Design the sequence.
């Protein structure tokens, strides 16, 4: 259970281009895409399932090792401006957010006792609940970024307008990194529950 902080910082750097995120026509000013990727695990006991997750789970740059699950985001934004009578203003702001969940799943055809399968379902629910908090934080970032861009004051220079917009979103993105890091450190109840399930 981990948010890949290094990946988030990379996403911030990517977003500096402030260009359109997708070629298709946008239907909303805030577009959010959610993707869930799975990796296969196996085992006959909760401990063996945990061992399999440690071996095959996604790599976390923040922890320097593989973890059970991760949630990553890529945020891009764009400002369409209008320049009239020597004044540049925001005509439209758009946000594109892609959230990717990396989660474990049982290998096809795996056999296990009913009690172990029930324990696995509880383990998965804990992982899913934890990662969905990160996803909710990313959605908050998208909403806050949109509001910040829409509230930009007019400038004499469009370059200045875009530079201030970039600075606002980058500041919000850094706050998002810290917010997710705090949650990662504070979710001790979830970790304790997972440890108890693994030891069954």
Sequence:
């Amino acid at each position: 259970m981990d948010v890949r902080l290094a990946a988030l910082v990379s996403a911030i750097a990517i977003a500096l281009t402030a260009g359109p995120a997708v070629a298709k026509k946008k239907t909303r000013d805030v577009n959010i895409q959610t993707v869930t990727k799975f990796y296969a695990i196996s085992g006959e006991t909760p401990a063996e399932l945990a061992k399999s997750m440690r071996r095959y789970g996604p790599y976390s740059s923040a922890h320097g090792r593989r973890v059970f699950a991760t949630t990553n985001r890529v945020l891009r934004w764009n400002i369409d401006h209008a320049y009239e009578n020597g004044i540049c203003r925001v005509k439209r702001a758009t946000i594109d957010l892609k959230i990717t969940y990396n989660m474990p799943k049982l290998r096809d055809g795996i056999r296990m006792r009913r009690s172990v399968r029930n324990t696995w379902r509880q383990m998965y629910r804990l992982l899913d609940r934890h990662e969905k908090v990160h996803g909710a934080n990313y959605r908050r970032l998208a909403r806050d970024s949109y509001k910040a861009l829409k509230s930009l004051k007019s400038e004499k220079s469009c370059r200045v307008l875009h530079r201030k917009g970039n600075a606002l979103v980058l500041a919000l993105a850094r706050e998002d990194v810290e917010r997710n890091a705090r949650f990662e450190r504070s979710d001790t109840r979830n970790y304790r529950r997972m440890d108890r399930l693994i030891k069954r």
Summary: Strands lie at 30-41, 59-60, 65-66, 70-84, 87-106.
